[in-house]
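User: Round two. Same drill as before: sequence, then structure, for each protein.

Assistant: Same drill it is. First protein:
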Amino acid sequence: MKIAISGKGGSGKTTISATLTRILARRGIPVLAIDGDPNPNLSLALGLSDSANTAAMPRSVVERREDESGKTSMVLTDSIENIIERYGLKAADGVTVLTGCRVEHSGAG
């Protein structure tokens, strides 16, 4: 099962995501929560420390590749399992959190 939560700023996406992931994990469902927000706070909402919130995946986990027809796409540079093992953080109720590549400063996104 894959669930994506989106919406305008301030609509409660992070709170809903954190609550939903913990409910599913408490029911024994393995949960991988990926925070793709440029200002990520899901790890904080799941009870991890502020320093854990800064542990984002590096941009090197994806790269732009061009196929024979000239079409470009973004691809992972490692297996999903290795990325989760290396960058995933364990949160409450067994939820694993991955924080996407953060924007470090203006103009860097």
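Second protein:
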Amino acid sequence: MEYVKRHTKRVAIGVAGGVVVLIGIVLIPYPGPGWLIVFAGLAILATEFTFAQRVLDTARARYEQWVAWLKRQAAWVRVGVILLTGLVIILTLYALNVFGVTFAWLGVDWPWLGSPFFR
């Protein structure tokens, strides 16, 4: 019985942590707590899985290195990163048909705003 409880707990933590990590990964390019959510998911996984603790430590270190590198860069590089991030956000919103739905609600019929995945 103890064996079943232990494995059920591991599976539940694995699923919960995995879902939180996946949500965080999807949210990384958007303004907000994407990386925080990834780190929270890894912390959940790390309570049961040693590999997750290693990944969490590595991810934190890489994130801190990225932030430190970005702070050392010229303003045009930081602006470029912001613009690239904005482009990723716009393309993702377009692919998810957010513009098509929003403008349809406003009564604007511009077919080119609709995502090719939702036609």
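Residues 74-119 form one domain.

User: Perfect.
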